[in-house]
Amino acid sequence: MKNTKLHRYNLSHEYCVDEIKEILKLNSQFYSTISIRCVAIKEEKEPSVWRNALCVIKALPKEIVALKFNSRIYDNIRLLEDWLEPGDLIDFITEFKNGIIKIADIDVNIENPDLQQVQYVHESIWPEPLPGYHYSTSGGSHRLSIPNDPLLSHKNPFYPSPDSAIASWCEIPNYQGPSDSRMGILSIFLPECRAYFEKLVYKHEEKILSIKIARRQKDLNTFLKGAYKSPYGYMELSGDVKDDIISIPINEKVADNLEQFEIYLLDNNNNILDYHKENQFSIKERIRIFRIPIKIEKKEDIIDKATKIGESDTLEFKPFIKRGDNKINEIIETIIAFANTNGGHIIIGINKYAVPEGIESDLGKEAKRYNKSYKDFLEEYIGYIRKEISDKLNKLPDYRIEKKTFNEHDFLVIDISAGSQKPYANIQTKDIFIRRGSNNVKPDPDTELPKLFPNLGRLLKW
Length: 462
Fold this sequence. Notes:
The chain has helices at residues 13-27, 89-96, 162-169, 252-255, 299-309, 328-340, 360-369, 374-392, 456-461; strands at residues 7-8, 31-42, 50-61, 72-73, 77-84, 100-103, 106-109, 115-123, 130-137, 186-191, 195-203, 208-215, 222-230, 233-240, 245-249, 260-267, 272-279, 315-318, 344-348, 399-406, 409-416, 434-436, 439-441. The strands form six sheets. The protein has an eight-stranded mixed beta sheet, with helices on both faces. A four-stranded antiparallel beta sheet has the order 14-13-16-17, with no helix packed on it. The protein has three domains: 7-191, no CATH class; 195-279, Immunoglobulin-like; 299-452, Methyltransferase, Cobalt-precorrin-4 Transmethylase, Domain 2 (2-Layer Sandwich). It is an alpha+beta fold. It is globular, with a radius of gyration of 24 Å. The longest helix has 19 residues, at 374-392.
């Protein structure tokens, strides 16, 4: 197998199957089970026919706990779940070549059953992101008639819409609804567990790029290949990987003026095991490594300052917001506004009277309600905020969320950098915000909006 490209198109189904066999062979010792999640829609004109809206198949590494659920049956939609042994995946693929797959004893029609392409991607679907192979069929030309009604059943969870059910059931946070290009496809994700980048960090003070490699197959030979470009030219990165932690000195002036950076982890057959790519405009999957740190005061000082002077063009505070409360959209608006303007900081735990109440009381009650420890529920709550941001923003600015303690109270501080890919918007409502004083406002279409589109003025002039 030669995996030397991140994206390969127009492959034959048979070629994909042969590659999948090889991947299973290389990673069989690391896989525990295969998860299948499918959303099937009842055919309007043929009520006995169920068509695939989206089917996601994933191999789970052994350290990941397999959370198993019963299939969820609604009037016109079925959320189906099934499980396979890794050794049975090839037989399953052979069966769906015929256009009908059986999932949880339900026959589901797939219009285009041939696997046709593969992407080598990072999938943030585990506690630690793992790279891997993402094979998929093409979308069908048959337009699915998906009802807009909520999914209601006294036996099953509530979904406000089929779109939310598809996104949640198939674990796709950036699902775009009926216009999503993945509608009707079947995808297979096989993580590469033999070796991968566990952590990449540029330490500004030491001027060191630190790379930590997780090597599960101990006898595997690995190699680094890459380069970075700055106004001062290209610099190659290359070498055998003898240790699991590698330190590469990089001049600070170069790092803060980075134009392009990419690095690959290869095996001795030149297969890509993992990679990272970024430039000053975009980033592939992982968080940005080379960035000028957000220059802010200590979080404790910001909290103290907020109680004295209130909100500003770079500072906003919020009381604790329960999970599922629509007030979370106020945080989303502020993140968009800060990213579209000059960046800023959101402090959760200060009420509308600028009193620093903290979050520990409300969070503690919520943790008790779900029978969880305060620490565990705090991590879940931060994860909830991150998911809301990921689900609702069209692009992600550089941001971080940290817990800070001030006057014996706990606070969450969200730091948002001014975005490099403006405009940022709410992908669900299409709303764009900027920060004006202490308010989030929609930009003036004549004076402020064009500034968010760097090339708009040139296009209008032409």
